[in-house]
Amino acid sequence: MQFRLASQHDIAALSLLVNRAYRPAPEQAGWTHENSLVSGERITPAQLATLLAQPNGQVLLGCQEQRIVACVHIENAGDYGYVGMLAVDPTCQSGGLGKAMLAHAEQQLQALYGLGRSRMTVLTSRPELRAYYLRRGYTATGERLPFPLDAGVGELLRPELELEVLEKLLGQ
To answer: Which residues form the N-acetyltransferase domain (predicted)?
Structure first.
């Protein structure tokens, strides 16, 4: 897999990738989807354009044969780096691409921003996804946040859902 930065030219393909990974049609679902928890689009082209224009972050892409198959958003949040929107095309899941994208994101947080700590949020009703990140060195902080109902990332199907904050010390 080759890594590169996303640009405005990637918005259509990137939107399709993220929405297929998070909220796919039933016949396209990989193990990372959240269809039973949240409905609607995970991200719109307009939201992606705004995200790509932010000066304190980047969207990193993983490509195979010129096709975008994975992505992750990183952001300099001051004393830590935020990692979000990790997505792998459902047809390519379980092949190590997510692990490679996450490792690349962590390396970029260190190299570009000099950060030694990474944080992310995971839906509380996704124990398999939480376990995936714990196996990669993340630990639970004990912090919980409400689902961002006003962020335009979908509608809750289960109102009790929250986000759990996970953290990792980088370079260890």
So the answer is: 1-159
138-163 per-position pLDDT tens digit? 999 999 999 888 888 888 888 888 99
Of 70, 48, 37, the residue nearest 160 (C-alpha): 37
Dig out the tokens for 132 from the structure. Answer: 């995936």
Reported residue count of the chain is 172
Reduced to 3 states (helix: H, G, I; strand: E, B; else coil), residue 16 is helix
Angle between helices 45-53 and 11-22 (to 10 degrees): 110
- Residue 146: is it exposed, middle or buried by C-beta count within 10 angstroms (0-12/13-18/19+)? exposed
Each residue of 32-57: pLDDT tens digit? 667 678 888 889 999 999 999 999 99
**CA pair distance 68, 62, nearest whole angstrom:** 6
Class of domain 2-169: alpha beta
